[in-house]
Amino acid sequence: MSPKRRNGGAPPPTGDPGAETRRLACDALDRIDAGGAYANLVLGQMLDRATEDGLERRDAALVTELVYGTTRHRRALDHRIEPFLYDEVEPRVRNLLRLGAYQLHHTDVPDHAAVSATVSAAPKRVRGLVNAVLRRVGSAEVTWPSDAVAWSYPDWIVERLRDDLGAEAADRALLAMNERATTNVRDDGYVQDGASIRVVDACEVSPGELAVDLCAAPGGKATDLARRGARVVAGDLRPSRVRLLGRNVARLEAGVAVLTADGVRPPLRPGSVDVALVDAPCSGLGSLRRRPDARWRIDADAPARLGRLQVDLVDAAADLVRPGGRLVYSVCTLTSAELDDVVTAVMARRDDLVADPIPDDVDDGRTVAGVGIGRWLPDDDDGMGIVRFRRR
Question: Which residue of 102, 113, 243, 364 sits 20 to 30 Å from the alpha carbon of 223, by its own alpha carbon?
């Protein structure tokens, strides 16, 4: 394998598969941290190129595990590394140290292999440093100053979820989101999280009904609605996301009409649809297992800011629903600002919506403004909140 080097400090390929795997993982980490790349996008592109150059499937799986795991546990790994650094190190060296520490404490890779492969992946001028630090990190006892550091989250996320869910439920969710993500593959080959399937279940579409999915990319829910017999119109705001949506619709040969549209001002006739789905843009604080870099991107103001957008989206979607039709609002987050407060604001705006209960097998059910809210905590699936209204 000879993937293109993207970091000027990295040495050329050595022919050592272990070193090459770690070097590729570190290239991805550099791009995520310094370049702001999204982990799933950059890693997919890099693995595609590396596979063409001869990367074996098992090595690609290891790279994915190393990148996702190291990103997820970044804060805790830094805490393990810091006592053995006497000066600040360049970003690539820090990522190599994080990568090695992750292997030592979170994988079944033998310690000697984790250290030697990571050292071999390092530029020659810093191999001594990387070797010395990792050997000490591997055997050192660690004292954690807080759960947020031990579990590798920003302080505000731990505090927010404990405030909104209570300490026991929040801690359960936080620990679950540090586990490896699971996948669910539909019979048409589309990979879809179980929580997304639960959202489509809540729509309860009948064959021939007209359903609109206002925030549809990448298309998992829209194509699932079509698979269940609905006539589906699916839109999204950004052209790049609409192109992704269109590619998935075409690949799955799903009967979905795709359009570029602002969900706050949808170009559809009022009262014309049987079911409207608003799977709203959110902070994603229920899906951090699958989005390992998101915990470092989200700011503390995001839940309130996105909650205001969600109110506008739900309000606009309600206008599209015929009398007696259904409106489903869902978010893959766990904050009150993006679920409870949105329901309160929507019900204050509209007197033509009534609660339409969904099945009650929820982890954290509650009633807000007379509306039942279903909230599922992360387990094998993402955390998810779902509310269903009926228009009268």
Answer: 364
Q: 3-state secondary structure string, 234-257?
A: EEECCHHHHHHHHHHHHHHCCCEE
Mean pLDDT score, 356-375: 79
Reply yes or no: is the peptide bond before residue 218 cis, omega within 30 of 0: yes
Query: What is the Cα 384 distance to its own chain's centre?
Result: 12
As a whole number, the mean pLDDT across the chain is 93
Q: CB within 8 A of 155, min separation 6: which ones?
A: 146, 148
| pLDDT band at residue 182 using 50, 70 and 90 as cut-offs | confident
Question: Residues 36-64: what's their mean pLDDT?
Answer: 92
* Of residues 231 and 367, more confidently modeled: 231
Q: Name the pTM for this structure.
A: 0.91
Decide: helix, strand or coil at residue 196. Answer: helix
CB 345 within 8 A of CB 338: no
Which listed residue (26, 203, 215, 332) is catalytic?
332
User: Regarding beta strands 353-355 and 384-391, do their DSSP bridges make them parallel or antiparallel, or are they unpaired?
Assistant: antiparallel
d(CA 60, CA 182) in angstroms, rounded, equals 17
**Is 332 a known active-site residue?**
yes
pLDDT at 333: 97
CA pair distance 27, 21, nearest whole angstrom: 10
